[in-house]
């Protein structure tokens, strides 16, 4: 009779603890079922990566059930702290709404994480899930006062901290500047001055990543990286008093911006390779084509770009309605669109401007046309992909991969688009069509498509590339 061998039990405890600590906290707890030694010795409790997340427990919107789930979460925190007081913690995350209602436990929780001073990664998120994001509706949000204040002892105990993420958490600015080892900083749902941002970059000479989400009180955004260390910048729906957005960061590689169209000046960022631009919170079209076109002229170093439907509708209204004056160096382009008639010219604009494009991702979603929008050229959506067809340079020589996410099938323009790329992509090797039902349901639409018949239809479309493989999932 064969005896099953538990190979994990043969590993020494120090190595098991390292393995467990590399797992997300939720998964580390689940590992107790893998091995008898893990369960009996409670090795999973020695993980150096701890995450107390209210959303792991609170799933219901019903007040009575939600109250019981929150109580279970708070009891879990209390039990863990009381039974693991000697734990060494390197990464600690606490996500808790309404912390002032349990301020004593909140402070106890933070002290538990920082008492040995070894934490390198600290995340405190006191934002409330009920705070509406206003996605695709409006750029402004209610200015919520921070729900909790960072305890004073943290400033003394975490001198060596490398990653700090604070959401709706008040702090003392001058004391925060003493965290000289910081490599990554994230602020959210709070008032933050641009003076503090520049002071952090100046004082923390190793800072490589900065993220701001739903922050406010910027007179104008003017960031200057004199240390030339900043590589990643994320600005997510922050509120500025003025429309000027200027960044001087010579070694910036990744740039993500969500919010209103500003007067952008990023000439001081010549090495940006990855950009994600989302202007979907704009109120209206407003004739901002020239502003967007001029902004994109500074992005010729890009290799990966993600753009929204607003971008596609506005970019053809710039200095040149057909393409960028200088070609982009983009290898992977992601466009978020519903393939409505207002987006078509922007799609063509980008195909013309990216002659070296290797991968195109089309993320289909809910349609939106901005007020006062006027097409630069007349177009008939029904015939867009079939009449006067042009094969752009990237389709002739470089485009090898096409990904379509959220395919819905009810709109014939989606099928015509696929047929166009099959017939025109001379070097196309892989086409992946992902039918994401969650996107369809969020748009209040039904998936009325027989995958088998759809596949049979695609097989009948003449192929420009003999190497093309099509996957439907």
TrEMBL record:
It comes from Lupinus albus. InterPro entries: F-box-like_dom_sf, F-box_dom, FBD, FBL13/AtMIF1-like, LRR_At1g61320_AtMIF1, LRR_dom_sf. Transmembrane segments: none annotated. It comes from the Eukaryota. Pfam families: F-box (PF00646), LRR_At1g61320_AtMIF1 (PF23622). This is Putative F-box domain, FBD domain, leucine-rich repeat domain, L domain-containing protein.
